[in-house]
């Protein structure tokens, strides 16, 4: 995080440092301008400094929700009290400095600076004096006099490399859960030692998607053996058809054949369906044994891998039978996605968009940048943000009895689409359509911020995801909605976007839900 007085080179040096580190870059003044549709000078002139500061505080709060990014703040940000403290907490904070004469020289001809009017030389000195203590407390100083942006950027990058946590990042979900989540390069190499430190037994079964057996499955087998464990590898075919009672019983038999007892461990390797059925088997075998998740698809990395929800489909209903069985370890290495085709990557982007809506629009900004064509650009960063945000919800509400309901944003619609299509519509595409339907429903209810539906529509289309629901039988969609697990005595429950998160709408008339899902057929909402 970079701050300092205007003219000290925060934007240019920050952008250079971000390029050196391979991280996203955010200039928070630019973010304020983009959201307002006007420049900082125009904001000051038309709305006043107090309104600018209020908008700055909102952007600081959004920036505090992301990690591993290079962030340049406005010069007055260190004066923003708790908002500044929340952003600076745990950050590698640097204050760029320059002498008053150097600042004055740099700002000549650089555009209108409202805070410097009407006498820039005098105001520069007054503001520097007034902010002296705030800057001294804000972070490590770097003098930029006589240095160009590249030289300062190199120093910033070196400072980050010296202080920042090395890869893989470890996120510990404590309390009732006790999950160690490893995210980043090298995560797979740490699985064996983490299991050995978390369980008493040495027997293990690696349940791996057939496509992952020879690659990641073999790598994990070697790692577990090196840690003193005795793994057996079981191959399984993924897909919704894997989540059946018959496949569950088949896994129990494989566990027994492998000699698993109550001290053993199941290591699930693959996409969401493999993690679901493997987790369900671990939750029910010998009344519950240790589970480790190694997601190999983007969708599984940002959704199914963490949270403890396991289950199987039955009677045409998705996840009709299930349990909460939190993994002891989750290993997420985005490098596993390096060779994944773009369609496979797109399947997980809607879930990343979801957490962006819930926690920080800056995530949506990076997604929009990726939509330009290079879906792998900053993909590791996006995965880390999604995992951290979901881990925060899980830690607060491990058994989904309160705030964690927000993670189901758009999912009542999405699950209905999947079921009505006989699971021919992939989960990621269904979530994209569900997000937009939830935004429409929330807008009609006066809960969703104006413009979010339009922004999401533009983003998802640019990412190659659908913005319209496929033409499915209305009766099948309604039946799926009525079978949703969130149905209560009050009727259907839908999670919709709200300011700074999400809101649970209870007792929604299903005609209104269908109108939100199929807006082209006309909206007739019922009060």
Tell me what you see in this structure.
- By secondary structure, the chain is of the alpha/beta class.
- The protein has helices at 10-21, 28-36, 40-47, 49-63, 81-88, 100-107, 120-138, 149-163, 191-198, 213-226, 245-257, 272-284, 298-304, 342-359, 361-370, 379-396, 411-420, 427-444, 452-462, 474-482, 510-517, and strands at 2-4, 25-27, 70-72, 94-97, 140-143, 169-173, 179-183, 203-209, 230-236, 265-270, 290-295, 309-314, 317-324, 329-332, 492-498, 501-508.
- The chain has three domains: 2-163, P-loop containing nucleotide triphosphate hydrolases (Rossmann fold), CATH 3.40.50.300; 169-333, 3-Layer(aba) Sandwich (Rossmann fold); 385-521, Up-down Bundle (Dehydroquinate synthase-like, alpha domain), CATH 1.20.1090.
- The relative contact order is 0.08.
- Helix 1 (10-21) packs across helix 8 (149-163) and helix 17 packs across helix 18 (427-444).
- The chain has a seven-stranded mixed β-sheet, sandwiched between helices. Strands 1-4-5 form a three-stranded parallel β-sheet, sandwiched between helices. Strands 2-3 form a two-stranded parallel sheet.
- The protein starts with a strand and ends in a 10-residue tail after the last helix.
- A hairpin with a 2-residue loop joins strand 12 (309-314) and strand 13 (317-324).
């Amino acid at each position: 995080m970079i701050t300092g007085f205007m003219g000290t080179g925060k934007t240019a040096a920050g952008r250079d440092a971000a390029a050196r580190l391979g991280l996203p870059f955010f200039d928070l003044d630019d973010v304020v301008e983009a959201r307002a549709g006007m420049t900082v000078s125009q904001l000051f002139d038309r709305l006043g400094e107090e309104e600018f500061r209020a908008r700055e505080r909102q952007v600081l709060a959004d920036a505090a929700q992301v990690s591993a990014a290079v962030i340049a703040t406005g010069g007055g940000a260190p004066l923003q009290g708790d908002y500044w403290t929340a952003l600076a907490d745990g950050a590698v904070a640097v204050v760029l400095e320059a002498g008053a004469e150097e600042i004055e020289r740099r700002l000549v001809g650089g555009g209108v600076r409202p805070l410097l009017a009407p006498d820039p030389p005098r105001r520069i000195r007054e503001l520097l004096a007034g902010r002296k203590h705030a800057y001294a407390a804000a972070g490590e100083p770097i003098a930029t006099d006589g240095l160009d942006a590249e030289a300062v950027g190199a120093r910033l990058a070196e400072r980050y490399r010296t202080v920042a946590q090395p890869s893989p990042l470890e996120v510990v979900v404590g309390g009732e859960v006790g999950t160690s989540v490893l995210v980043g390069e090298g995560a797979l190499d740490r699985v064996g030692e983490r299991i050995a430190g978390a369980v008493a037994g040495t027997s293990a079964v690696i349940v791996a998607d057939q496509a992952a057996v020879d690659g990641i499955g073999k790598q994990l087998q070697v790692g577990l053996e090196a840690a003193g464990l005795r793994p057996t590898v079981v191959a399984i075919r993924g897909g919704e058809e894997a989540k059946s009672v018959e496949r569950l019983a088949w896994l129990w038999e494989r566990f027994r054949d492998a000699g698993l007892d109550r001290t053993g461990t199941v290591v699930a390797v693959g996409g969401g369906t493999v993690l679901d059925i493997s987790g369900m088997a671990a939750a029910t075998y010998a009344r519950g044994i240790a589970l480790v998740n190694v997601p190999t698809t983007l969708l599984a990395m940002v959704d199914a891998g963490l949270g403890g929800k396991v289950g199987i489909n039955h009677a045409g209903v998705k996840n009709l039978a299930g349990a909460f069985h939190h993994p002891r370890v989750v290993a997420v290495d985005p490098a596993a996605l390096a060779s994944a085709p773009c369609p496979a990557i797109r399947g997980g982007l809607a879930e990343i968009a979801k957490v962006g809506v819930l926690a920080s629009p800056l995530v949506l900004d990076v997604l929009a940048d990726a939509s330009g064509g290079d879906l792998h650009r900053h993909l590791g960063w996006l995965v880390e943000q999604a995992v951290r945000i979901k881990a925060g919800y899980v830690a607060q509400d491990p058994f989904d009895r309160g705030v964690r309901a927000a993670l189901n944003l758009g999912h009542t619609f999405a699950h209905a689409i999947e079921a009505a299509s006989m699971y021919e519509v992939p989960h990621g595409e269904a979530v994209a359509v569900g997000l937009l339907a939830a935004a429409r429903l929330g807008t009609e209810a006066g809960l969703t911020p104006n413009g979010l539906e339009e922004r999401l529509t533009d983003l998802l289309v640019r990412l190659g995801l659908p913005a319209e629901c496929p033409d499915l039988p209305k009766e099948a969609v309604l039946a799926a909605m009525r079978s949703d697990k969130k149905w209560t005595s009050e009727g259907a429950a839908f999670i919709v976007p709200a300011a700074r998160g999400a809101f649970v709408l209870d007792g929604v008339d299903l005609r209104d839900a269908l109108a939100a899902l199929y807006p082209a057929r006309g909206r007739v909402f019922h009060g």
